[in-house]
Amino acid sequence: MRILLVGAGGVGDAVAKVAASRSFYEVVVVSDYDQSRADKSIAWIQAKYGDAVATKFISAKIDASSAAAVAALITEHRIDYVVNAVEPKFVPTIFSGCYTAGANYLDMAMSLSEIHETDPFHKTGIKLGDAQYALNEQWQRAGKLALVGIGVEPGLSNVFARYAADYLFSEIDEVSIKDGGNLVVTNEAGEEIFAPSFSIWTTIEECLNPPTLFEKKKGWFTTAPFSEPEIFEFPEGIGAVECVNIEHEEITMLPRTMEVGRVSFKYGLGSDFIGVLKTLHRLGLDATKPVRVRSAQGPVEVAPRDVVVSVLPDPAHIGPRMTGKTCAGVLVTGKSKDGTARATYIYHVADNAETMADIEAQAVVAQTAFNPVIALELIATGIWEGVGVMGPEEFDAKPFLDLLSSSTGYKQKWVAQERLPASPLRNP
Asked: For the whole prediction, is pTM greater than 0.90?
């Protein structure tokens, strides 16, 4: 297997480091618009694993905004699988470049949504991933796989949902993804600062767009941002965190192939974080359309959201100043295999101190990075097979989770924790 990794920022750097501990591939081309970032990732691999491993990694420059550039690099290095580890605004060009060059494709964030023009808080427009799913038949005819949404959320969350459906439940009322943590980032003076642990570009997109929900009788619909707040008790010392609805890919993905009554995604943002996001929105700093800005060099066109990205700390570099844990999990409710009421929270926790010690990557990006590498290994060994545009929930979850936690695999603990079933508040 010959792999092209597009992006050597926080997640891409962690993907390369995780892959370096495995041996199922022939070569990994680590590419970035700033090639020095790719060079830095490979230098880390060389220092940790030596020349024998590092020689399997090649550095390259890439313009992810150009489908032709992506296709050219695929052809140059005879790439079999492309891993998209850059912001979702580049999905269309990388997706197209892969198809043109005849390569298989993986990503961790799907094509962007567009809100309903007249009723954005009740009706969906173009949902996350719709543009990719629309090309499913083309990918099937080409005999190629586009494995979409194979990060942690979406990704591991989808695997958890599929595992619950196949091995724990006879009937699922709701799949509710619950993401929360107690991560804190401080400045040099030790003061807590606003520093999102993932791309602020993506964070704004997810949190300020109308959240999408799915109910079996209603189909897909939307609500206002930060709707349906609830307190959820996260495990392993994280504790109670207020969670709210946000837009996320799982809600588009899971109902396509799974029989579920309801799907939601709730993120533990906290009141301060929500306040900052609301302020950015009121000021128009979440906008993606460029505006004319006066500067000493004359007028320039710049997207307000890109300015926000530029002034905040790079998520790839905040690890040394971060403490705490992050939890990605799925609360599944319904009936167990014996027909009794059941509520199970299936989760994975990443501790920042541990991920920094292991691969020098902060917890959120490290937790994301394991999953595409595990998927590639399952594909390389023939355990996962498929063609077309597919999500992780369309494959058997058990081999994935076995490899995730095995002492000869990735040594990442996951837990299926029983919760007390609640009385249903709705009848999907």
From this structure: yes
Pick the range with the lowest mean pLDDT from 222-236, 242-256, 258-272, 286-300: 286-300
How far apart are the C-alpha atoms of 290 and 308, rounded to whole Å? 13
Q: What Cα–Cα distance (Å) separates residue 71 from each residue in 39, 102, 151?
A: 21, 9, 23
In Å, how far from its chain's centre is CA 123?
A: 24
Name 262's bridge partners: 174, 215
Distance CA 94, CA 88 (A): 10
Domain stops at, among 71, 91, 107: 107
Return d(Cα 41, Cα 413) in angstroms, integer. 26
Nearest alpha carbon to residue 22 among 56, 60, 68: 56
Q: How many domains does the chain have?
A: 2
Reported residue count of the chain is: 428
How many of the other CB atoms lie within 10 Å of CB of 112?
A: 21
pLDDT score for 281:
86
Confidence of residue 53 (pLDDT cuts 50, 70, 90): very high
Query: What CATH code is carried by the domain that includes residue 228?
Result: 3.30.360.10
* Cα–Cα distance for residue pair 104/113, rounded to 1 Å: 23
Structural domain for 179, as ranges: 156-365+413-419
For tokens 């009322």, what's the residue?
173
Q: What share of the chain is helix, strand, coil (3-state, %, to 5)?
A: 35, 25, 35
Q: Calculate ∠ Cα 7-67-135, nearest 5°.
A: 100
How do residues 378-387 score in pLDDT, each as one tens digit?
999 999 999 9
